[in-house]
Design goal:
Blueprint: H1 3-11, H2 16-37, H3 40-57, H4 66-85, H5 92-102, H6 111-116, H7 118-129, H8 133-143, H9 149-155, H10 160-180
Length: 185
């Protein structure tokens, strides 16, 4: 079903909207939550909470694109659940991605605090605008959706080593870009 029709079902307050949303984007939403939480039950809970949040925000919101809107909600809920679950523990998938990108932000603030700040977000946006489409996708899939390197290698039809090298080079360029933009590191 087309996104606009799903949104219209939400505006009509039809319960079919949740079913259609789940059918169309359920797998990717689960993947986003799984990558962060590494726990099927918690991931399922986050996805269901995200569906409720979408139900509560549409209307009045009319998101375009719907997939990005839903994934952002899932990711935010998963990150909150992750912090709740792992106050002193380590989650290898999500922590690995944060540690990689964390080298670009060696300040006293956490990586999430830095990324959420408007100044850094603008600098990262301008950095991503200067990249080719495939590199942008790779960067976002790894550092926003926390996709494992193995999965990215399959997605880009290349080796795990190639993905690691590309990501390493992107992080070095990002660090230089942030310095050039005047972001305090």
């Amino acid at each position: 079903m087309d996104d606009s029709k799903i949104i219209e079902l939400f505006f009509a307050r039809s319960e079919q909207a949740i079913s259609e949303l789940s059918d169309k984007y359920g797998r990717i939403c689960s993947s986003v939550a799984d990558n962060i939480l590494n726990n099927k039950l918690d991931s399922e809970e986050c996805v269901n909470d995200a569906y409720l949040a979408v139900w509560n925000t549409i209307p009045p919101q009319r998101p375009d694109p719907l997939l990005s809107y839903v994934c952002r909600i899932v990711r935010n809920l998963a990150v909150k659940k992750y912090h709740f679950n792992t106050a002193q523990k380590r989650n290898s998938i999500y922590d690995a991605a944060l540690e990689e990108i964390g080298d670009c932000f060696p300040s006293d603030l956490s990586v999430e605090d830095e990324i959420e700040s408007g100044e850094v977000a603008k600098a990262i946006d301008s950095f991503l605008e200067g990249m080719d489409k495939q590199s942008r996708i790779l960067f976002v899939r790894r550092y926003y959706y926390s996709d494992p390197i193995e999965e990215l290698a399959k997605m880009f039809h290349t080796s795990r080593h190639n993905i690691s090298v590309r990501l390493s080079r992107m992080r070095k360029r990002l660090k230089k870009h942030l310095i050039k933009e005047g972001v305090l590191l």
